[in-house]
Design a protein that fits this description.
By secondary structure, this protein is α+β, with helices and mostly antiparallel strands. It has 5 helices and 28 strands.
């Protein structure tokens, strides 16, 4: 019974517990063995070995295994510490891939191991987004015609559909507490912003205009949502509270401002803009002051991402396909990749030490990681077919 209990628990006992288990096993076996010798002396040899009755022999075997099990455990597993659950959750990457003929969501460890296919259907599943504590993955799929939002629950390996409207539902972002999801939808004929509970209930419209509101991003403190609006004739950065009220326009120029991303402390917003005849990276205070251009090359730069400590901003340049980093004040611009291919789809690890990205440097679009200095590059995927949008699993709260 103790043996079965240990196997069921699947965790190595402590050294003290192992020694106690071994001592008890030896004592129990010695006592049982003496009893069996007495049976032999009394003429019950054949009965003992089971020709007429196997029950005593079963008991002897059970005691023998009970002794052997601790020794085998010592050889195989003693001294191995159970892996920390929290550290495991920070070393996974979600992404989508066309490797199996259609676009599906996958999970893998940050070294490329233990790959798991999360979705399986003939439609397109795309744009996976981790919940803040890393227990759920929201994504979009056109499996029922329109683009709808689905959620995958990691612990129970189950997927649920959250939206059922006649329009398309895109641009997912989680509230910091993981209780709500903001998104854009054209269900009413125009692209406006909506919010819903993380289980799909209480869907509510936040913006209402005849031109597109896109790319919503929840502030780190959960009090505001930044977004792009075309209500003024071109894309500008706005913020509003989580009820859809108190809208404030932060940028004001004749070209498109896109991809708003809050700094970790919520004091700044980085974005890309085409205002200088090419796409550059800019940063602005959350109140609309202090706008600063961070990249000045003739290339188009996109996909800005903050480091978790807010000290670096990463982005990629379209013309040469390389990844760069720069300080939020525009200083210390550094090129991190030096390859022939295109490098994009950036994700920064929760500890700020690693970057996951997509590259076609080896002829196919694969996922790689490197440290934040551009060193220790590791290719994670090797199967033909498009691999895109890697995202590190957040550290659980």
């Amino acid at each position: 019974d103790i043996l079965i209990s240990i196997l069921a628990n699947q965790a190595p006992p402590s050294s003290g517990g192992f020694c106690l288990l071994l001592i008890l096993s030896v004592i129990s076996f010695k006592s049982s063995f003496q009893t069996k010798l007495q049976q032999v002396n009394k003429g019950h040899f054949f009965e003992l070995i089971g020709f007429t009755n196997m029950k005593p022999f079963h008991h002897l075997i059970r005691q023998f295994v009970f002794v052997l099990f601790p020794f085998s455990y010592l050889i195989i597993g003693c001294g191995q510490e159970p892996q920390d659950e929290q550290s495991l959750s920070t070393t996974q990457i979600v992404f989508y891939s066309e490797r199996d003929g259609d676009q599906e969501i996958y999970l893998m460890d940050s070294d490329g191991g233990n790959m798991v296919r999360v979705t399986e259907n003939p439609a397109i599943d795309s744009d996976p987004s981790w919940s803040p504590n890393g227990d759920r993955i929201a994504f979009i799929s056109n499996r029922y015609g329109n683009w709808d939002i689905f959620i995958y629950i990691c612990d129970i390996d189950t997927t649920y559909q959250l939206t059922f409207s006649n329009g398309d539902n895109l641009d997912i972002d989680w509230s910091p507490d993981g209780n709500k999801i903001v998104f854009q939808s054209n269900r009413d004929g125009y692209h406006n912003l909506f919010v819903m509970d993380a289980d799909g209930n209480n869907q509510r419209k936040l913006t209402d205009n005849s031109l597109a509101d896109l790319m919503p991003q929840w502030s780190p403190l959960g009090e505001q949502i930044a977004f792009v609006s075309y209500r003024d004739g071109n894309g500008e950065i706005y913020v509003m509270d989580i009820l859809g009220e108190n809208e404030v326009r932060l940028t004001n120029n004749a070209r498109n401002d896109l991809e708003p991303q809050w700094s970790p402390d919520g004091s700044k917003i980085v974005f890309s803009s085409h205002r200088k005849n090419d796409e550059d990276i800019y940063v602005i205070n959350a109140d609309g002051t202090g706008e600063k251009r961070l990249s000045t090359s003739a290339s188009d730069e996109y996909n800005p991402r903050w480091s978790p400590d807010g000290q670096l901003i990463f982005f990629y340049a379209f013309v040469n396909g390389e990844i760069y980093c720069v300080g939020p004040d525009g200083d210390n611009l550094i090129q991190l990749t030096q390859t022939e291919g295109n490098n994009r789809d950036l994700s920064v690890s929760p500890d700020g030490e690693w970057i996951a990205f997509v590259s076609d440097r080896d002829g196919d679009t694969e996922i790689y990681t490197m440290d934040i200095n551009g060193d220790n590059v590791l290719r994670l995927t090797f199967v033909p077919g498009l691999d895109r949008a890697p995202q590190f699993r957040p550290t659980p709260n």
